[in-house]
Structure formats: structure tokens, C-alpha cells
Design brief:
This protein has 21 helices and 23 strands. By secondary structure, it is of the alpha/beta class. It has a 9-stranded mixed beta sheet, sandwiched between helices. It has a 7-stranded parallel beta sheet with strand order 5-2-6-1-7-10-11, sandwiched between helices. A hairpin with a 5-residue loop joins strand 22 and strand 23. Helix 13 crosses helix 21 and helix 14 packs across helix 16. The longest helix is centred in the N-terminal third of the chain and has 18 residues. It binds glutamine.
Amino acid sequence: MEKPQQGDCHLLTSRVKYIFVTGGVVSSLGKGLTSAAIGTLLECRGQHIAILKLDPYLNVDPGTMNPFQHGEVYVTDDGAETDLDLGHYYRFTHTPLSRASNATSGQIYDTVIKKERRGDYLGKTVQVIPHVTDEIKAKILAVSRQDPKTQVVIVEIGGTVGDIESLPFLEAIRQFRYERPKDCINIHLTYVPYLKAAGEVKTKPTQHSVQVLREIGIMPDIILCRCENALSDELKAKISLFCSVPVDAVIDEKDVATSIYEVPLDLHRQGLDAKICKMLELDAKKADLSEWEKMLQVILHPKATITVGIVGKYMEHQDAYKSVFEALHHAAIAAGVHLKIRKFESDRIVENGDVEKAIGGCDGYLVPGGFGERGWEGKVLTAKYCREKKIPYFGLCLGMQVMIVEFARHVLHLNDSHSTEVNPNTTDPVISMLSEQRGIKELGGTMRLGSYPCALKPNTLAYNCYGKGLIHERHRHRYEFNNTYKDAFEKAGMVFSGTMEDGLLCEISEIAGHPWMLGVQFHPEFKSKPLEPHPLFRDFIQTLVKA
Ligand code: GLN
């Protein structure tokens, strides 16, 4: 065998295999979900995997993007603001997730330009090939080296083949494979539409999209066809012939009837994991999907239905609160019930004037995170309604801040109290920036991002949910509870059951004597998995089932 030379990175890491997932025809096919499901299947065969998302847009990260444009911003333990597909990876697999797990064109160009300014390229002309493509390849290698146990790296390329933006990424994976011919496969996820008027399923868009891939020098090894219903053998044979992919490597990924957690099982039934293992010569064991099968049975046979009302600001965008929806579903699965989510735009509650009429009828309510003024007062009304009527309420980040402001206004009678995010001149800034609380102006404006420890007070709802005294949760916010008001709140029945270890920051608040009214300054939804539901979501849903 050839001896690895220093700097000869592909030989040093040659035991790692790579799966590149590209998308064709249209966007929103569920590439993230598919990449995650491939991860599930490989893990069920005993493989250690890692997943990387490459995003072709020029923003450095999605942190500043409007949720209407981009959906949820998923936060990792190390405080990176990333694409929501990382949430799928977390829920479906045990991949390590960090800043290294998501790279955008913006980030890559930023690195290249900084290097150029520093003179790192020694006067050479800096070009997309090789400088940008080298940087992309370096990102892929960095993920493969994050954990020495990693055996397979799944790389999802955002966007659709044929887009101008994704060309450097596709060129980079072409080169990457050229350098490691035995260690890579390409999976192309495409759309096979059913044309109602013609009564036919059409393969032409797939043929064209594979043609575009081939022009770039990439041959797909497996074609996954997103479709409404399973494809006939005849259609698979047609795609196989036109796209030069063996017929058993043309696999359909049809719309799932009940739950996205069916996807890995469906792909396994068609032999996707066996095919991947064979192509990459993985030393994999037989797939054990028993836990997933069991979970699906629970989903298919719920013993009751519960309804949760979510009161937010971006309710029309189905991905804006992705992790919140999923975390609620995980808890419902654990409780063996079907979850119905009712979505309420908080603005409309104020317009309506009658809270009961606007949102009444749910078993419990959840107010998720958010930024800015719009929708605030509708959320405050929701918290008041739940507190007074003793209906379960779960506040996430802004949802906790709202719960604090409501309590200040209506229990402590601090009528003007607010968060300084919305009213900087409020006489009672019960939610404010730590820097403001200390009278330091110039330190404000930076978000608290990523995982922080939180100590829990024994004999509280929060402690009972977690069953332990120290937890770690992820944050994404600027404003905090203002400790100057702590005594007054506690005397009136608010319990601060979770605090940052030094006791300075209040992370969890709950209302004594209420069946379930709890707010958290962090985002527990980022740490829930279908097979490991988050303890707070689990208890919230369990309470609704019992009620
Ligand atoms: N806007 C609030 C803050 O910055 C809450 C943020 C959130 O809900 N993620 O503190």
C-alpha cells in the first residue's frame, strides 16, 4: 500500500467514505430530511456518521435572515446560527453538530478574501477554481476529522442543480471524488411529478437534471425520486436507462402519509442502505430499525388526540418554528397520542379583542421565540388568558419574556412594564439587556448564543421534569429577566427554578399553584429527538393528556 505522505490528506483519511447529496428539478424536495434519513440508516447499521450542509447563498450565516425567507435558524451547542436542515440531522442521527457542520458560499468567499488580503496566496490570481473549490474541500475534510470515529460523511449540497450559485460546490465535489474515486458516491434527489391532466408520471425533468449534472462531470450513483406515489418498475427502468444508473439504484421516496419518521423505514424497504454499503464497501452490520418501527406503530395507533395552540408571528411559514413542531410531536409520540397543532397569528388576537374567541378551545398553549415589536401584545394576552384560566402554557425564549411582562403588569400592577427591546423608555424594564441592567451602554447588542449550564432548584416543576440539578441548553437572545425585580416576583408567586450557575441570570420561570405555566429563556426545542423527547415538552404534553 502507498505510504501516506505529510499533507497528502486524502490518503490519511482514506478510510472515511463520502456521500454527496444533490437536488434536481425543484427546491423544497426534502434534501435535508433525506440526508438525515440516510444517516439514520447508516447508524442503524453500526456506522459512525457526520453530516455537513453546504449552502450556496452569500449570507455568511442565516442568523440575520428573515424567518419568512429562510425558516428557522437552528443553533448548535457552540453557538453557530445554522440552516434548519441541521435540526433534521440532530433529530434523525447522532452526528456531531457544530459551527463546522454548515458552510455557506458567503463564509467560503469571506475566508478566501481574508486570505487574499493577508497575502496568503503569494501574489497569485485568486480564482473560483482552485481557491474557492479548495476551501470547500477543506470544509468537507474538516468535518471528516471532527471525530476520529467518523466512517461516513454525508454532504448535502443546498440549492438545485443548474443554479449558478451552486456551481463551485458541484465542481468541488467533482474534484473531491476524482481524488478519491473509491470513497465517494453521489446521490441525486429529484422530482418525478404526476401530471393530472395527462394522467401520467413524468421522468423528463429527472433526465434533464441528470444531464446537467453530467455536464459538470458528476455521474449519479443512486437516483432518489420524490413522487406522490410509488413508481412502477417500468418507470424505474426508464429512469435507469436514460440516466445510466442501475435499475436497483433508482429508488422512490414517495410522500409519507403519517409522519416524516417513516422516511428511513421506507427507504430501507427499498434497499437504499444495502446499496450504499455495497457501493462504498462499508463493513456494516445488518440494519436494526426496531426502535423506529416501534415508534411508527405508536404514531399509527394513537390512543387520544390533544390540541396545542401555538401563538407566534411567522405562523404562515411552515418552517419558521420547525423544531418546536417536531419537539411537540416527539412528546406526543412518547405519550402515545396524536397531536393537533392550531396556529394563531398573535397580531390577530389583539385585532379580535376577545382572546377566548380568537384562540380558545386548545388543551394548552405554546408561545415560541421571536424578535421585535410586532405580535407582542397578542402574546401577552395569551399568557394572561392561560394564567387566569389555569390552562397549561409553555413559553420559549420570547415566550418566557412575555410571561414575565404579563405577570408584572397584571399581578404586580406595574402597568407600564415591558421589555426594553420593545419599549426602551418603559418605567419598569422587567426584561432588559444585562448591560442596561448594569448601566453599561456600549456592551449591548450581542446575542447570547449556544449552550450554557443552568442549575435547577429542587422541588420545582422544572427540576421534576429533568430529574436532575444541572442541565445544558442552547440560547439565542439578547434580553434577560431583570433581577432588580426578582424579590417582588417571588413574593407574588413566580418561582425562578433555573438560573445560570452563578445565579445571575434567570433561565426558567414558573408560576406556583398553576397546573403548568413555565417559561424558559433558552430553546429546548433544539434538543429533542423522536426517540429521546425533551423532558419539558414531554411533561407539558403529558399534562395535557392527563387533563
Ligand atoms: N427577542 C428576544 C431577545 O432577543 C427573544 C429572542 C428569542 O425568542 N429567540 O431576547
